[in-house]
Amino acid sequence: MSGSIDRAARRLLRLRVFSLFLLCVLTFWFAMIAGTYRASNRLLALAALVGVIVLALDALLLARRVASATPSSVSTHLLEIAARFAPLAVLNLMILNVFAPVLGFVASLLVNMPVLRTWLTLLGWLSGQALFALFVLGIAGLVAVTAMRLLDLAVRRWRPVERAVTIGDRAVVAVTALYCALAIALTFNGTFDRADATEHRSEIVSVWGVSGTSLWWADVRSWDARDGLKRVLIFPERDQVVHTLLSEGQHVRVRIRSGFFGLSWVESMRLDFEHEMEPLVAAAPSAATPRKRLIGMLLRDGRWAEAATQTAAYARYHPNDRALVKEVAAALREARQAERAAELDRMAVPVSQARSGR
Amino acid sequence: MLLWLIAYWHLSQLSWDLVQVSRTGPRALAHYLAGNYREAARAYQAGLRGQVTLPYTNDPAGYWALRAGDLDEAERRARTTLALVPSALEPQITLAELALERGKPPEAVRAFAAVLRRNPDHVDALYLGAVAMARAGDPGAAIQSLNRALRAGSAGGRDAVLYRIMELAGELRERPPGQQPLCLLAHLHRYLRIFDERHGLTAMSYARQAIAAGDRPADAYLTLGIMHDKRGEYEAARRAMRQAIAADPRHAEALRWLAVEAQKEGDPLVQYQMITKAFEAAPTDPFYLRDLELILVTRLGDPLGMATLMQQAIALDATNAEAHAQLAKALVLLGDPAGARQHAKRVAALQGRRGEGP
Description:
The complex is a heterodimer of chains A (358) and B (358).
Chain A lengths: L1 H13 L1 H21 L10 H22 L4 H26 L1 H10 L4 H44 L1 H33 L6 E12 L6 E6 L7 E5 L2 H4 L11 E7 L7 E7 L5 H7 L4 H13 L3 H14 L4 H13 L3 H11 L2 H7 L1
Antiparallel strand pairs in A: 1-2, 1-4, 2-3, 4-5
Chain B lengths: L1 H10 L13 H10 L2 H12 L14 H5 L3 H14 L5 H12 L3 H14 L4 H13 L3 H12 L9 H14 L8 H11 L6 H15 L3 H14 L3 H14 L4 H14 L2 H14 L5 H13 L3 H14 L4 H13 L3 H18 L4
């Protein structure tokens, strides 16, 4: 069994271009995973950025291998077919693109044919997008392969360059392997973690990142070390914020998981406006929602007297909502605040019932 | 490939409205891309001209005749309709636009003002009125009119609006540097951004120049903030809006925009403070009442607060139908159906007087 795996691995390594392409895919995948199970450690939080850098190095190496590769007979045949049909596809796309305004105009006239209208509009728009992507890839590929051919020329002429390139080649593969190992550790640390998340309150110290990308971090005050910092890679889908919404001084709630290997990682980071509940209740005293939230917060923090006062104020503004008053009274009773609970109970009794009881 | 990419980069940001399928369309587009907005606008307008194909019955306002360049026919149609229905707004707008076309801006300003007295939020009248005011030498009034139109979230119904604003922007840009109305130019480019994203940067540049020159800094900061918001730069947008409020603490639109930004963040206190301040800055403007209802009643559960504010609005202007409608809704939630019915009747009476139906 191990012999056949070994043989397969050797065969794969002999396919120099394909093996590096696989390495690129793997690095990309691990960079994504490192972002998913984002560590809160200041250095490990940069794992996704490191992944992107490693991926760029791998892509350069791939371009070099493509530039110096001798295609097999099958690859040669496939390349010949592609070379024959690619200009035709590009030409068709260009023609479509030139006529895109006409397609758009025709689409705008087809008021009663929504399906055809949508398709025509899409066709005009997609032809441009597809051609743009093809040309960008083509130009980037051409530039990379040309640069690598030049490098190969230099390698053949000068020995120090040859040595540097060989070392660089091996270093890139080694760094990629190390990165993949780290990413696997982070993945296991997150996926096998069964501990519950703990929530910490903090404040953003700075927001920084690579503009034009989704690689942005928020440095927040540490909750376990004085003057320390925690670093959070911003994950818009999970945190429900984009980096442009964040700024220094904003309050956040960070949910932390302890991690299977003890490397704590960030489950989510949300903007926190709980500290605004009291001023909001003061500004809008008759508003039900903020006062209810404030009562909930006070009960959670064991501030029984304040919770009872706020509930009494709530009952004055919303005399028909007796359910909340009863709920708070029950919570107070459970917390052995019998006197305050009894006071609220009296407020919860309907006027007619109180009269009949006399 | 590179040339195609550059061309695509420039053209892909344009709206279809700027790619006109007509004899003069390519010339108009070329002028537009070269930044000759005045010539481009004239070429676009020339592209609309031709035979008047619609009979009077299908064009009672004379809009299509005006669009086709037959000014006399447009005037005849508009006046015929006004003789039959003196309260019709569209023929009045056609007559006002005709005055603009014939180079009589003061006459056009008066005609648009008459339309806006009847319907203060008529978007076409606001945009075209702004053009007339700018031509009559009143950039301040033009900016107010543009802001009021832009807040409706519509680019206008008549395609002439785009071309007239483009032509005006082109003319004002050609003035010597010291004589350019910078803040007005920022607003004109803010409008043009609806059709071409690149105008956002131009609008920001003019807004910064206007701030430096002290030309209506609050409005300039507002434009700067909105452009930041459209580019997804929310923190920068908030900063600019705050500066707009620092320059003019009663700038209702800047206050409303700060409430919008606070909603994106999820900040309930700032949202409440800003929308109530916007209402206090413009208590008779019905536009702010829907946002006020959304925040006070829907989000904060405060119908009592809403009813109090609506009573203030009605005390200032008893003909404010929207305030009566909002008060009726709040009273229903407060358990006062009789009071709600009374205000609903008042709404019906006010709408009947304005010729609006439910």
